[in-house]
Amino acid sequence: MGGPGNPPEGTPEGAPGGGEDEYRSVVFDESFVRAARLQEFSAQERIADHAPAVRRRPPLRRGLSRQALVLVLLIALAFGTAIYMGVRHPYQAPAAREPVEPLRMTVIPLAPEGRVPGTADLKYLYEHSPAAQFRTGAEGVPLPASRRTAHFSDSQVVSALTTAKDYIVRSALDPEVLTGGEVRAVRVLLDPDQLEQFDQSFARPTADGRHAPTGWLVRFDPSRAELADRKVRVQGTLAAAEADSSTLEVTADHTFVYALRPAGAGGEDEVSLFTLRRELHFRFDRDDLRLHQAQLVVSYVQAGPLSCAEDSTNHLRPLLAGQTAKEGGPAGTDPYATGSATALCGSLATSAQPKV
Length: 356
Hints:
By secondary structure, the chain is α/β, with parallel strands linked by helices. 24% of the residues lie in helices and 21% in strands. Strands 3, 4, 5, 6, 7, 8, 9, 10 and 11 form a 9-stranded mixed beta sheet that branches. Strands 1-2 form a two-stranded antiparallel ribbon. Strand 6 and strand 7 form a beta hairpin. The radius of gyration is 44 Å and the shape is rod-shaped. Residues 89-93 have low confidence and may be disordered.
């Protein structure tokens, strides 16, 4: 007769030998039993309630797993950080903007002491003038080495210098501007608070120190003269400094030399040089730096050869090769020198003219 663990016929073929139970490795510990979803009713419960043999147990309530808890904490931390950054922004809050000053401008004509020298040989004319070593076009307006200030970064200082250079190039070197046509290229670089003054200057030019087009830009009377060379000679300096914690200032001092001939003249006509020294003072607040705009607050111009008897408010009306001024000024002024200002009208020093 088989043992208590074996069937009467013995262990079936293929079954584990030695009477070993194939489920012996499964351990039904207390935690396993408690986790079971089905529970058998007792005999007393089945008799009393005529209930089925088993009942479904409610699922055990378990707390959040460690991973879920960490995820919830991370989400809460990110949400709190976002709120904090929104309340305490790392950048400075924009302060109330001060009113932009109107441009103060001075345009001083310089009358020649004799006949304006000229020649058909443009190269010879440049080589025998004080502009012989000047650079050409925008190359003559190099950016200086810049350094951060107490309240402005390197990039902000560079932005101010670059905007000032762009204004100089567009307002004094662009052939379309010089010939009395284009003004929009200059206008878009100005702070919006100065646009009304700019527009009034061109709509109603007035020699009041506030509304002269030649205070904003350089342009010649197209009925009087035209460019004999589009490559203007330039030399000068740019400098940036902090005015206060919210304002940068850039000072520009450049001398420009233009080659001119009579309007409508042929290529064989004599060419003369026109010299213009221009000092500009720019201001920039943080909005200007961000928008690539400038506040032009001072424009001081000395230019010749011009006749003091002619109005230079709207256009510059240069005296050309062989011409003389009807009226002179008090004392010789050299626009190549960085001396003091000249009042109202001056004389163009002989040393400022080419030796022809």
